[in-house]
Specification:
Rossmann fold; 193 residues; 5 strands; binds adenosine-5'-triphosphate
């Protein structure tokens, strides 16, 4: 599989990957090497210019972007409850599940606060909790530890590991060497010198 944007050079070519459940993949490479593009290809939003992607047993893809996006006036817990409601659960169940996920990410105390009042790191963790609330088979995460202090970053990395052990495929684009070391497999897009 390979990809280039119109008029651009090959971001990658002859890339062959088989992603399997219960594994956390780190996607590394310098800025501009194509990490976000490859996440987009894995999500099915970008069609590679060469080769193909075969998705086997993937019903739901979760994607967490570098910059958190939420609804300013809506509470943190509502952001996480929404995908649970959308999956057909009752309102009370959705709320309980959302509170459980917020707890996993150390966000219980800000559950009822509006999105606009959250710190960058809180908002980033909220985006992870929201993505997981949709029960994805494949979770694609862009720079999850970029805005976090070392303790919070270690918590996120451990959470991603726990999710993968439950059966999820997790792919994390990261520059953080500690996050990279905690992953099972490294996919490096750095050009060979
Ligand atoms: N839609 C697009 N059209 C044209 N070029 C694009 C498009 N999206 C990305 N690019 C270019 O493709 C290259 C790879 O971008 P990408 O965002 O995938 O890199 P990255 O490794 O994620 O970078 P960073 O670490 O800075 O986030 C860049 O040179 C970028 O400018």
């Amino acid at each position: 599989m390979g990809h280039h944007f119109p008029g651009g050079h090959d971001l990658f070519s002859d890339l062959t990957l088989a992603l399997v459940p219960k594994t956390v993949y780190a996607l590394t490479g310098p800025s501009g090497s194509g990490k976000s593009t490859l996440l987009g290809i894995m999500a099915g939003w970008i069609t590679p210019t060469a080769g193909a992607v075969v998705r086997d047993g993937i019903q739901q893809v979760g994607r967490v972007f570098q910059n958190p996006h939420g609804t300013p006036g809506r509470t943190a817990v509502d952001h996480v409850a929404l995908p649970v409601l959308a999956a057909g659960h009752h309102r009370d169940e959705a709320h309980d599940e959302a509170m459980r996920l917020l707890g996993d990410f150390g966000l219980t105390s800000i559950a009822d606060n509006p999105f606009r009042s959250l710190s960058g790191g809180e908002a980033q963790r909220l985006m992870l909790a929201r993505a997981i609330a949709g029960s994805p088979d494949l979770l694609l995460v862009d720079e999850p530890t970029a805005q976090l202090d070392p303790h919070a970053a270690a918590t996120i990395t451990a959470s991603l590991g726990a999710l993968s052990r439950e059966g999820m495929i997790v792919v994390v684009a990261t520059h953080d060497h500690r996050a990279r070391e905690a992953c099972d497999v490294v996919i490096d897009l750095a050009p060979v010198p």
